[in-house]
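Supplementary notes for students who missed Thursday's class. We covered one full example, reproduced here. Read the sequence, then the structure, then the short commentary at the end.
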Amino acid sequence: MIIKLEKENNHAYIDGANLHQGMNTLGWKLDYKKFRVWLTDKFSITTAYLFIGNIPKYSKLYAHLQECGYILIFKEVVYDNNGKPKGNCDADLVLKATQDFYTNSYKNMILISSDGDYSSLVSFVSSEKRLLGILSPANEKKCSILLKRTGVKISYINEQKNILGVQK
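Structure (token representation):
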């Protein structure tokens, strides 16, 4: 597991769609409130940005996530020919993490995604010794090879199912 740091100003950058899809693939529901507390306790996360497509019918979910302590960064959603929403937040997450790096908004960051599109961000922040690691919502086989090739420590959220899963 990634090393726990005490009382530092660390930020989490969360690809909301990737997290949600990863949990669905693993077959269990993440308790977002427990997850936010766990991020604070385990990694001294003071700010957790959750990048997510903005779909009006999910306004109650968005309110719940904000109550749990996430800062939501919304992406406008477009719909494909089948009516499936697309709100790709990758570029927004990379831009925000990079801006925050250059303004020294955080001491260290953690990425929560298994998407290889973030490998350049991971390599850069890691080379500057300001990356705690990656939390992958996918299992080891589904986590991008591009992230694995960075050599950064990857932990798998699935290993925390007993702590972070919704209790029935």
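Commentary. The beta strands are 10-15, 45-54, 70-76, 78-79, 85-86, 108-112, 131-136, 154-156. Residues 15-159 form a domain with the Rossmann fold fold (CATH 3.40.50.1010). If anything here is unclear, bring it to office hours.
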